[in-house]
Amino acid sequence: MASEDVKRTSDSAVSTIVNLAEEAKLASEGVKAPTSHALLSIAKSLVAGGVAGGVSRTAVAPLERLKILLQVQNPHSIKYNGTIQGLKYIWRTEGFRGLFKGNGTNCARIVPNSAVKFFSYDEASKGILWFYRQQTGNEDAQLTPLLRLGAGACAGIIAMSATYPMDMVRGRLTVQTDMSPQQYRGIYHALTTVFREEGPRALYRGWLPSVIGVVPYVGLNFAVYESLKDWLIKSRPFGLVQDSELSVTTRLACGAAAGTVGQTVAYPLDVIRRRMQMVGWKDAASVVVGDGKSRASLEYTGMVDAFRKTVRHEGFGALYKGLVPNSVKVVPSIAIAFVTYEVVKDVLGVEMRISD
């Protein structure tokens, strides 16, 4: 028995030495252990998502600001109606910097939001596909548009919830002007002021319509983008596909179509979210909204009440205020985000892209 124990111990030691030698050999050849390799891949995916969000949002920052201003503009004191007119007004009254007001806060929110969103979609897609194959017994099954919609919805909810306080203060920083009685000096000042004066729950005001809106918005973005790409690769219409790879221009077009569909469906909820975020801001009456009669018009008891008051006082069309600049913004923004994400992942050497 003793000799057998010694033999087992000796075999174990030899095995350990061999494994360590193999790992050292792999490391010298530039091959990382599975754990470190997985962590590096996750980090690269998060970086790609963050870069995609920052680049795409900065490219359309003036339109993003105009959209929010139109959403919360007092209907009894309208200063501009259209996209061009609105941009000219901002330029005239606030200069070039006014076009990008709130973009720093926006990027501080959108970079982690985009990183979490793209990474969550990758992981949710893998999990949903695994579960689908287990349920159907078909190991070769692929993601359907409906499954992609579910993965996108999961990614949107996770990303929105993780970064919502940043979105809350971003909306207020974007809305305030040089004439506002109180000025938020930046992200930290806005967060601490809202927390101190209105309580921690205020940082998540409008969260419910945001989550409800993000399900169709992000879900449709991913589902339409990926399904369009699959269809183009399989059907090869008009000679758009070469060697099973779409050109950057074609992928931009897929992203533009995805963004247009998603934002059109979810836009009314975005308007309601924006208005609910202004509730409790004692200086908001000078820059926003309601029926123009009193500060009480800014008070909503919930999402349904906000819908009801908005439609009653301003009509159904108020739910689509700012849709035109938003549409002009969404087309390049979503397209740039998807393509930038895939390009950066290629540059960083990440093996898997979202369509894989």
UniProtKB/TrEMBL annotation:
Gene3D superfamilies, sorted: Mitochondrial carrier domain (1.50.40.10)
SUPFAM superfamilies cross-referenced by the UniProt entry: Mitochondrial carrier
Major localization listed first in the record, in broad terms: mitochondrion
Solcar repeat copies, ranges: 40-127, 143-231, 246-347
Example of a GO biological process term: transmembrane transport
This protein's GO CC annotations: mitochondrial inner membrane
Keyword Transport among record annotations: yes
Localisation: Mitochondrion inner membrane
Top-level lineage group: Eukaryota
Membrane-topology descriptor: Multi-pass membrane protein
Key words of the record: Membrane, Mitochondrion, Mitochondrion inner membrane, Repeat, Transmembrane, Transmembrane helix, Transport
Similarity-based family: Belongs to the mitochondrial carrier (TC 2.A.29) family.
PANTHER family: SOLUTE CARRIER FAMILY 25 (PTHR24089)
Name of the protein described by the UniProt record: Mitochondrial carrier protein
